[in-house]
Amino acid sequence: QVQLVESGGGLVQPGGSLRLSCAASGFTFTTYTMSWYRQAPGKERELVARIMPAGTIASSTYYVDSVKGRFTISRDNAKNTAYLQMNSLKAEDTAVYYCNARAWANVYWGQGSQVTVSS
Fold first, then answer.
1. What is the three-state SS of the chain?
2. Least CB-packed of 1, 45, 76, 80 within 10 Å?
């Protein structure tokens, strides 16, 4: 049974930090591209960051412009876990954050984790 279990969301003040975790099971984690998406109220879901599978020539990462320099995506293949370190958080980062795993035609989603940035 495939599972993506997210944790680490919550309420934080502007300028603060949070780290989201996504624990994966039920599939071969090392062969999947891992991504974080977010969806704010009234807005479409958007890709925030992506990290390529292990063993690619370049374990490249991608970030949407609005989070470059503030967010860092990483993966621990020994723990089957992906992370999103979020620093210098802003009110506009408030959203439900979703973990995503993708390989070929297989796409899996986590349940979502609420991140609220407010004073």
1. CCEEEEECCEEECCCCCEEEEEEEECCCHHHCEEEEEEECCCCCCEEEEEECCCCCCCCCEEECHHHCCCEEEEEECCCCEEEEEECCCCHHHCEEEEEEEEECCEEEECCCEEEEECC
2. 1
